Amino acid sequence: MEVTLRHIADPLGGAVEGDDSVVISGISSLTLAKEGEISFLADPRLRDQLRVTRASAVIVKTRTDLFAGPQVIVPDPYLAYARVAAMFAPAPPRFEGVSERAVIGEGVLLGKGVSVYPFVYVGREAVIDDEVILFPGVYIGDGVHIGEGTVLYPNVSVLRNCIIGRNVIIHAGSVIGSDGFGYARDGDVSVKIPQTGTVQIGDEVEIGANTTIDRASLGATVIERGVKTDNLVQIGHNVVVGEHTIIVAQAGIAGSTRIGRNVIIGPQTGVIDHLEIGDRAMVVGKSGVVKSIPAGAVVSGSPTMPHRLWLRTREHIRRLPDYVERLKKLEKRIKELEQQEKEL
Question: What is the DSSP string of 29-77?
Fold first, then answer.
């Protein structure tokens, strides 16, 4: 793909300083870019790389004299990078049509332009909408609905009656609709609670590799529009994740917790069941969330507390050995003073 710099700048709302007819064939970092590629400066600490880059053009926040070639001026170079990279990113490879080595159940509805690789299984009464791509090893259970333009990478499992929206990406090895973890105790015995609900995933969601999203015990586990999860995320039964929330790797969300919109949950965070996390809250990585979090709050630690308090607390934890030694000296000094007082 080759486009002019003007063709790149216009969708970004960017102003071009210099020759806007330069032809661009790709995007790369400042240090790796070659002639014909565009690069970007998102971190001011890297500005000296502008002097040595071989890029034909750069995306910057403000015009700079460190680079002699054309510059695209935008408010947020990192966001612009994401959008330009999407222009040049290769589309997922497609198998033409439906492989004879795929298994298609009775009553399945396949839309136009569907790509079904070998060794895919599609259960009875499933609906696969237009332009869906199912890579090898994908399992689609009975009654599943996959929305238009969705891509399921190898070995994804979508179990019975789950609903996947439009333009969803589910990466390799993920499981959608596995049983929620629900048991009642009968003395020493765990009695399984049947998980009869489903999972509903909204449009434009991206699910990282080896993620598990459990079906609801009753009703639905809901992942709303635009949610992004990293690899190795666990979402329990009846959880609701609000629009455009981000959940980073190795986080675990226990059952029936409700997460608001535009929340960020950091890596290796654990959230217990039946909590409420408000819109735009941020949970720092390695946190343990044991109580609800109000909208807009930034929390960290285990158990969580306001982030600034946790930073102060962590500093004191580091100094605990010094505090202990000082306390011992103070106790010793107090005993000496008490002894002196008795002798008077």
Answer: -TTT--TTEEEE---GGGGGGGGT---SEEEESS--TT--S-EEE-S-H
Q: Are 193 and 212 within 8 A, CB to CB?
A: no
Cβ(239)–Cβ(218) below 8 Å: no
**Structural domain boundaries, residue 336:** 315-344
pLDDT tens figures, 194-242: 999 999 999 999 999 999 999 999 999 999 999 999 999 999 999 999 9
DSSP state of 221: E
CATH number, domain of 142, equals 2.160.10.10
Task: Tell me whether residue 237 is one of the annotated catalytic residues.
Answer: yes
Domain membership flag for residue 140 = yes
What are the tens digits of pLDDT across the range 150-163?
999 999 999 999 99
The secondary structure element, H or E, covering residue 11 is helix 5-12
In a shared domain, residues 175 and 247 = yes
Our count of domains for the chain comes to 3
Q: Among residues 237, 244, 274, 307, which one is catalytic?
A: 237
